[in-house]
Amino acid sequence: MPEYTVNLLWDPEARVWIATSDSIPGLVLESGSMDALIERVRFAAPEIMAANGLKEHDFTLRFHSERMVVDGELRLKITPDSGWYSVEGLDVKGLVTQGRTIEEAIDMAHDAAKALAESRAIMAAQKAATAKLKACC
User: Fold this and answer.
1) What's the pTM value of the predicted model, to 2 decimals?
2) Chain-centre distance of CA 118, in angstroms?
3) Any idea of the CA torsion for 34, 40, 41, 47, to the nearest 10 degrees?
4) How high is the pLDDT of residue 71?
5) Cα–Cα distance for residue pair 28/6, rounded to 1 Å
6) Which of 96, 40, 89 is nearest to 68 (CA)?
7) How far apart are CA 121 and CA 107, in angstroms?
8) pLDDT tens digits for 81-97?
9) Residues in Cβ contact with 113 at an 8 Å cutoff, skipping those fewer than 6 apart
């Protein structure tokens, strides 16, 4: 089954997502929501392909996007992934979450960042206490 890549780009000036594809000529769509744009592409792609003479009935669309978001103190990279959104923290090592919507994924990233910070603080305190014990004995 052929696979076609669709690139999703965020236009910060227009505040919309834009979908384009090198493998589906003429595919250029936009929407204020990534979720809505993905649905529009799924609906429009077969018609655009047919208009271009491509007679594929069974095919897969692979969506590619990397949107950088600054949300509070977190810089995040958001990538759509099989109906989910993966979020990677750019400044917090080990911060990776997923959500069904962008908003859910960002909320989960904030929760995970807080949990990571708390865990790392406990580990640092334990390490300092162990070093102190080794130094005195």
Assistant:
1) 0.58
2) 25
3) -170
4) 64
5) 10
6) 89
7) 21
8) 777 888 888 888 889 99
9) 74, 89, 92, 95
Distance between first and last Cα of the chain:
67
pLDDT confidence bin for 66, thresholds 50/70/90 = low
Q: Taking the C-alpha atoms of 45, 49, 51 and 55 in order, what is their torsion angle to the nearest 10 degrees?
A: -130
The one-letter amino acid code at 99 reads G
> How many Å apart are CA 12 and CA 52, to the nearest integer?
31
What are the two backbone dihedrals, phi and then psi, of residue 98, each rounded to the nearest 5 degrees?
-140, 155
CB count in 10 Å sphere of residue 99? 17
Sheet holding 16-20, edge to edge: 28-31, 16-20, 3-11, 60-64
Domain boundaries, the chain: 1-64, 66-137
> How many residues are listed for the chain in this entry?
137
Cα 91 to chain centroid, rounded: 16
Q: Could you give phi then psi for residue 131, rounded to 5 degrees?
A: -65, -40
Q: Work out the number of other CB atoms within 10 angstroms of the CB of residue 1.
A: 7
CATH 3.30.2390.10, applies to 1-64: yes
